[in-house]
Fold this sequence. Notes:
A 3-stranded antiparallel sheet of chain A has the order 2-1-3, with no helix packed on it. Helix content of chain A is 0%, strand content 19%. Chain A is globular. Chain A has strands at residues 3-6, 12-14, 49-51. Chain A starts with a strand and ends with a strand. By secondary structure, chain A is mostly beta strands. In chain A, a hairpin with a 5-residue loop joins β1 (3-6) and β2. By secondary structure, chain B is α+β, with helices and mostly antiparallel strands. Chain B has 17 helices and 16 strands. In chain B, a hairpin with a 4-residue loop joins β3 (40-43) and β4 (48-51). The A-B interface holds A 5, 7-10, 38, 40-45, 47-48, 50 and B 58, 61-62, 109, 112-113, 116, 119-121, 356, 361-365, 367, 371-372.
Amino acid sequence: MKKWVCINCGYIYDEAVGIPDRGIAAGTRFEDLPLDWVCPECAGEKDYFEVMS
Amino acid sequence: MTATLSGRVTLDDSIFNPEDHAFIRDPYPTFRRLHAGYPVAWHDRLQAWFVSSHELAAAALRDTEHLSIRIDDWEYAPPNYGQKAESEKTGFDRMWEHSLWTIPRDKHIRLRRLAMPAFSRTVMEKIEVRIKDLVNKVFDDIGQADEIEAYSQIGRLIPAAAIARMVGIPRENEAVFEGLAWHMAEAQSPNLSQAERDAAMARVLPGFEMLEALVREYRAMKDPGDGFLGQLVKAQDGDARLSDWDIISLVSAVLVAGADTSIDLHTLALRALLGNPEQKALLREKPELGDAFLLESLRQGVPGKSGLHRYALSDFELGGQRIRKGQRVCPFYSAANVDPQQYPDPERFDMSRSHEGNILFGAGPHFCIGNMLARVQGLLMIREFMARFPDAELVDGTGDIDYDYHHHNARRITRLRIKTNIH
């Protein structure tokens, strides 16, 4: 499981946690999020996320 | 509402006039009219579409397929934003070429990726310490006064100095840096005449010269450190690095987004705090609501009088209206932030309400790069104010408030009188 950070606003998407409030189950891989999914904080597109080192 | 043959909804100054003094003093009646009949409407005199619906304003901010932030894409783009011969370029032109507002999407992603470490939590924590000193100094200077004027004694003093501390501007250059801060937003404003914009551009040039020299100094250092400029100088993504003008354009972006605009954050937060005693009590009881308090201050306080600016890249439809290529579209965030469809009972100040999906710092790829800095300085100020003046009140219950009726974009409070009640 990886963590992804939005380079626009710093929001972190943790695959292990998902976003259950928004219907994204724990364990959902970033690649499996819909193509039109956007950052919940700043609405940046998926291109603006990168894997946290 | 005026419907033309094409079904176009149009506005005139009788419905919405951002220069009208009554609107600046109390914008809510105008917003009620806009929400009732003009979610997306063309303003003939201002030659722009105003988007007052929260849902549609948020969609417009995210819509990079049809809308551009580049003023060059406007049908009335000022000529001095076009290409110039290399020898004619000023510091403003060079900053503009590298700016987050002008570079294409792939470069925008690269620039934000490289810049991200400079805005990281670690750097922000270091910056918070420096800004805390600044906020303390502002309150030390107020001392034991019976009365404070919040614009001149607090709001005007903190924002540009906070950015200077963040960037690491030497104290002797802070005045030049502040000149850059106050005139950068004007130099990019489509609301000004060409002569006014040219004057603003001329005023920012000494600031760019100072920043060029400072970046060169950091480049020459063996170890530029882990502060803001040090991080930017060292930033690397594969073989890619930030150029000097990339860095200067990033500093400029923070200035435009965070210097002039943050003045209103301070005055609106103080007015909200003292104008809503039950919310002040709640904040004292639950200091963890500080961030929500600031967001609600920006939402309900309505700092802007026109909107953000976008330019149509092609003909497209928004909210049932046909937008033509080259037209200006203004996601009117101030109106959107009090849209009853998004915020029930929108004129009421309630920090406990949900701010999920808010556009207080924009949305999409141009989300405010300095939003964390604004929040940090706002929180430090409000905490210090509450600690030093726990029984403060607005003079006459209103603060004897007054506005700058000629500001190019803000409903700028220029007088907010507070009784400190410490004696």
